[in-house]
Specification:
Length: 79
């Protein structure tokens, strides 16, 4: 998978989880993919101050991205 294909795949994964975040007044955007292994995202809206955003990041976002792109090792959020 090329870097561009990986970006498209990760965006599709984010599109899958985005409605759940938006239903709570939040959102997410892709910032970068480094070395085809590390995805950096930015949680937005109500997700920024949410007390469970790290759980959402690991259990929801990271799991969904890895389902679509198993080569991804980690997903991090920039504040």
């Amino acid at each position: 998978m090329t870097s561009e294909e990986l970006k498209i795949t990760v965006e599709k994964a984010l599109d899958e989880i985005r409605p759940f975040l938006q239903s709570d007044g939040g959102d997410i955007s892709l910032v970068a993919i480094d070395n085809d292994k590390l995805v950096t995202v930015k949680l937005e809206g109500n997700c920024v101050g949410c007390s469970v955003n790290q759980m959402t990041l690991k259990s929801g976002v990271e799991m969904t991205i890895k389902k679509h792109a198993p080569q991804i090792e980690k997903v991090i959020n920039i504040a």
